[in-house]
Amino acid sequence: MEARRWLKSQYEGVGLEASIDGVGNVLGRSKNPGKALLVGSHSDTQPTGGWLDGALGVIYALEVARALASDKATAGLPVDVVSFQDEESRFVGCLGSRSLTGALTPDMEEGAMDKDGISMADAIKQAGLAGAARVKLSRDRYAGFVEAHIEQGPTLEDTGNRIGVVTGIVGLRGIRFVFKGQQNHAGTTMMKTRRDASTALYELAHRINTEFPTAAAERTVWTMGRLKVEPNATSIVPGYADLDLQFRDASDAPLDALEKIAGRIVTEMNARGGVKIEATPARAPIPPTLMDEGLRKHLEAAAEKHVPGKWMRLPSGAFHDAGIISSTLPSAMLFIPSIGGISHDFAENSRDDDIVLGCQVLADAVASALTEGVRA
Ligand code: HGY
Ligand code: MN
Ligand code: MN
Questions:
Q1: SS3 for 243-279, per residue?
Q2: Do 339 and 150 contact (CB within 8 A), yes or no?
Q3: 222-226, 236-240, 370-374: which range is least confident on average?
Q4: 185 alpha carbon – ligand 3 mean position (Å)
Q5: What CATH number belongs to 172-281?
Q6: Model confidence over 251-283: pLDDT tens digits?
Q7: Hey, where are the domains in the chain?
């Protein structure tokens, strides 16, 4: 919250009307007339996340607003800026952008809990935001939304490109599997009478990894990075386990197919008896989205001006707030290269000259979209 209050004062320093809304989004509204462009990204991170994921786009937006305001040729352009809260799903994936677009439903909020058992309601109270008003973006105020972000993958670096213009953002779904068996003694419980929750988890995970490739498309991915085995002791047959599966693709068809395979595996394993498996959605799904052609053209023209022939169009394997905002506003994204393609790790980094270039391209694209019109 201290960082968000600092950011709010920075927005005010650029002449914007700044506020922190009821879920912790920081918004800066331009006083200039005309249809505005909203520019920004998220300021929360993954546990052991890197320093650029999200924060790059938040600071770029501040810098673009500042740069355009300081040049009389662009000082009259209406640029709004935003720092979204909780894109990384501490409580709800893309919580801030969902709240701003009316896509945060009461049932998503009810029971939203972080991994340490803190409820979203308590976290909002602790942040001193319980009384702050929730804000909704008004469609007719904006010509569109632009988000700059690190690529978080190896494509730009591997192809020697310095700017990426995003064509589409992956959709994402999650399933939580709960395994209920019988806790017991690891020595006296014979193998044929055990109801070992961890063995069921390993079997399900193994079958997912062997059966998903039969229905996966070229860029379909799935991850089982969070699990729990209780009581997590070497001499005890676990009576309980749970496992989160997350899967992504640029279109719904492969996601539907994987969902069906996962359901069939659970049905087959439950039919054998022994450990009982329950499967429920682990998070609010994020649909695949395409970026707006009109806005993309401005990013492409600015990239061509700064680094002719050293930019490319590419899909995003990461999800982003732009994927949620695009349900309300035409949206576009710009990427800069990630060194070694690493992200969601302290080692995440980008070259200084790429960081500076990305901001210059974004500033030019925002200025041209607002002066020539997004549809140009
Ligand atoms: O996981 C993602 O794609 C994003 O970085 N939160
Ligand atoms: Mn992230
Ligand atoms: Mn991110």
A1: EEEEEEECCHHHHHHHHHHHHHHHHHHHHCCCCEEEE
A2: no
A3: 370-374
A4: 45
A5: 3.30.70.360
A6: 999 999 999 999 999 999 999 999 999 999 998
A7: 2-170+288-371, 172-281
Task: Give the tokens for residue 128.
Answer: 């001193």
- Judge whether residue 375 has pLDDT over 80: no
Query: Is the model's pTM score more than 0.90?
Result: yes
Q: Is the CB of 318 under 6 A from ligand 1?
A: yes
If one residue of 152, 169, 248, 286 were mutated to test the ligand 1 pocket, choosing by the most ligand atoms within 8 A of its CB, it would be 152
Instruction: Give the pLDDT band (50/70/90) at residue 180.
Output: very high
Please give the sequence-ordered ranges of beta strands (E in DSSP) within the chain, or none if there are none. 17-20, 26-29, 36-42, 79-84, 142-150, 163-169, 171-180, 184-185, 221-230, 236-237, 240-249, 276-281, 289-290, 311-316, 331-336
CA 126/CA 176 separation, integer angstroms: 28
Evaluate whether the domain defined by 2-170+288-371 bears CATH number 3.40.630.10. Answer: yes
